[in-house]
Write the structure tokens for this entry.
Amino acid sequence: MKIEEIKKLIIKGEGISLEFKEARESLPESFFETVCAFLNRNGGSILLGVSDSGKCIGVSPGRVETICKQLADISNNPSKITPAFLLHPEIIDYRGQKLISVLVPASSQVHRCNGKVFDRSVDGDFEVKADEAIKNIYLRKSSLYTETTIYPYLHESDFVDGIVDKVRKLIQINRPNHPWNMLSRQDFFSVSGLYRTDAATGKSGFTLAALLLFGKEEAIQSALP
């Protein structure tokens, strides 16, 4: 992100798609609640090292690399964010201070932080507790993102032989430290969003994304003639 873009964001101030957080020595406790809220709503940017009022405080230079690594590792930990969503922080030098910029896109899935669903409004993050409200988030997502459509009768036998193992080996070669490399086969499908359960309908199964990535030609044609 360019310096001018950072300047514009700070002048703009916090809103439904922008959050400032002080992080001089460590990640703030509420960081992943905001990540979860952005994923569930329209996405947004988080600037670490900036106060709520827009004052540039900075991240300690001796801690910035550690915080970035911690941020990336925890974001891909399904015990913190479910389904996990790997983030890529960017270190910015701004007016003599170190800032960390984190772009969080809108997700096609509904995410939880520490088992709780969070959403975003102009006033900030809020926990969604009512079952009906959570169901509405699922319905909104399903109407926007067709790749999360669940196919309950799709099985691994419908995938091209060996393709899943090939993809996982490619991940191991290109990203040897990627947390997905340590997951079981089923956990890999779940964490990557290729196998999911729809809380609105109770259906579980592989998604359209899994079919398009791994499916045999005849399986794809039968679903999408």
